[in-house]
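Dear Dr. H.,

I hope your travels went smoothly. While you were away I took the liberty of generating a structure for the chain from your last submission, since the lab meeting agenda had it listed for discussion. I wanted you to have the full record in hand beforehand rather than looking at slides cold. The sequence, exactly as received, is reproduced here:
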Amino acid sequence: MSAPFRILDSDPFVPSVLDGMPFAAEFRYWTGGSGERYLTRAFPLELAAEFPGAPVVLAAVDEEGRREALWIGIAAGRQFDAALAAARSAGATEAHVHLLARGAVARVEVLRDLRAAAHPRASARRPDGARVVARAA
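The corresponding predicted structure, in token form, is as follows:
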């Protein structure tokens, strides 16, 4: 995997409407290159495949709770299986799944925007995002 790039999460990391809720930490915003924020829910890596076709950010969590995206793509197919194995080997422990995009076109737009924040050239060259590495604040 290549050197990390940074995707900046907007403050708050967790939607304010969930403040004080026991499950609030399961939700995160990831910000795309356009500045648009995308709400995701974090799941253990092994559950990512349960959301075929959904935009997914495979992420590692550092000691301070910051998320580093190791892969951004669609949860389906052999490419996803390979990315999942590589991300797990690189320290990923969470799959952040965006479930609010309506339809295939909207899902592709979400992916392109998140990839644009992570690595502009990769998103322009490779819309499937196989080599994208990003860091969330």
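Two observations you may find useful: The longest strand covers residues 37-44. The radius of gyration is 13 Å.

With kind regards,
E. W.
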